[in-house]
Amino acid sequence: MNLHSKDTVNKIGKVSLFRTRFINPITTSEYELPISSEVISTVYNLKGSEVRRYSQGFLSAGNYSIQWDGRNESGNLVASGTYFYRVEVKTKGITFVDIKKMSFMK
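The chain above was modelled as a monomer; its predicted structure follows.
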């Protein structure tokens, strides 16, 4: 597989199509990895401060999901409001990042 071809970038980009389901107070984000990749998912507040990080390590190709329970790294429930969910995928010298906006309500 040529990792620099447009077709491959589009396949790696499939992670950008992750779906987010909101069932307060749990937010589930699902994504598909077309090839083995390192994945880091992070939740940020409106100020751009990191709220919670999920370092999933190196994952094989397949479907995955992450659940955010509305808590920060210290385990405290965050305030209701708007947050951003960032997924970073690294594979064979290519880094892909996608960011989605979500709302959290207590």
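The first strand starts at residue 19 and ends at 23.
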